[in-house]
């Protein structure tokens, strides 16, 4: 049985670089006050026995925004992050479950990633905004459509030599490219390696990201619902060195 999702899927991990950032984003995207949509939530748990993995499962939760006719308009997928090699098995299981029912017109995936500059490297320099102003970066992956085009128009394109020192994201990008899923990577960067809860820079980036996601999904961004924990150091990103060459 395939997992039903909307034509637009916001796909992220439970930590997604910043402790609590993905959950904060998911929780801050709400229905407009007079919207005809309704919100549905479900948890999922997929076995990994076909990968000869019996002691772990692909787990996470889905939030759907559904219209009066039962049609899914937007889905938010919040996936539990795991370490390699279980990470790759879990992502393949989840993406295969979602895409199995499509012969064409796959859902568009929006991949928000919020990180310290230590996880975003361009040659020997980190990404930076013009004159220190808040800015989001965006990268189109695969075929463009109206949703992806709207996000491209409101974000900066990162340099082609950009590398991600965060294993779950690198692995996800690998599978998105292999499956030819239309996707847009949305990057929010904070400059320091350790960001205090509620810092101005942290909240500005997350608010920018929430507002952009709300604008392209016809949802409402509830700024007051954001509550974050401290940023994890880059050393807590998992074993990346041996696996970087696989996802590149």
Give the CA-based shape. globular
Distance between the termini: 32 Å
CATH architectural label:
3-Layer(aba) Sandwich
Q: Give the count of helical stretches.
A: 6
Give the spatial strand order of the biggest sheet.
3-4-5-1-6-11-9
Largest sheet: 7 strands, mixed
C-alpha Rg (nearest Å): 17 Å
Order of helices and strands: EHEEEEHEEEEHEHEHEH
Oligomer type: single chain
CATH class: Alpha Beta
Low-confidence stretches: 129-134, 231-248
Mean pLDDT: 80
Strand portion: 25-35%
Quantity of strands, as a count: 12
Fraction of residues in H or I helices = 25-40%
Query: What is the CATH topology classification name?
Result: Rossmann fold
Written overview of the protein:
This protein is an alpha/beta fold and 248 residues long. The chain has a single domain, classed as 3-Layer(aba) Sandwich (Rossmann fold). It contains six helices and twelve strands. The chain has helices spanning 21-28, 86-99, 146-152, 167-179, 200-217, 244-247, and strands at 8-13, 29-30, 38-47, 57-66, 72-79, 108-116, 120-122, 125-126, 136-141, 162-164, 183-190, 220-221. The strands form three sheets. The protein has a seven-stranded mixed sheet with strand order 3-4-5-1-6-11-9, with helices on both faces. Helix 2 packs parallel to helix 4 (167-179). It is globular.
């Amino acid at each position: 049985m395939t997992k039903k999702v909307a034509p637009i899927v916001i796909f992220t991990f439970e930590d997604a670089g910043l402790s609590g950032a993905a959950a904060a984003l998911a929780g801050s995207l709400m229905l407009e006050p007079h919207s005809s949509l309704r919100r549905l939530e479900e948890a999922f748990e997929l076995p990994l026995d076909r990968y000869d993995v019996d002691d772990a499962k692909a787990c996470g939760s889905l939030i759907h925004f559904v219209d009066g006719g039962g049609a899914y308009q937007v889905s938010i997928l919040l996936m539990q992050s795991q370490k390699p090699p279980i990470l790759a098995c879990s992502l393949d299981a989840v993406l295969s479950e979602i895409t199995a029912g499509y012969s064409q017109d796959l859902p568009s995936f929006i991949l928000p990633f919020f990180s310290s500059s230590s996880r975003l490297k361009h040659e020997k320099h980190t990404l930076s905004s013009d004159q220190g102003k808040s800015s989001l970066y965006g990268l189109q992956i695969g075929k463009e459509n109206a949703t992806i085009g709207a996000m491209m128009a409101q974000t900066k394109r990162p340099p082609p030599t950009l590398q991600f020192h965060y294993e779950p994201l690198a692995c996800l990008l690998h599978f998105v490219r292999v499956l030819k899923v239309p996707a847009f990577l949305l990057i929010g960067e904070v400059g320091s390696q350790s960001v205090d809860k509620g810092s101005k820079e942290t909240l500005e980036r997350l608010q920018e990201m929430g507002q952009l996601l709300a604008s392209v999904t016809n949802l409402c961004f509830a700024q007051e619902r954001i509550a974050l924990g401290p940023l994890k150091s880059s050393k807590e990103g998992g074993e990346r060195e041996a696996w970087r060459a696989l996802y590149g």
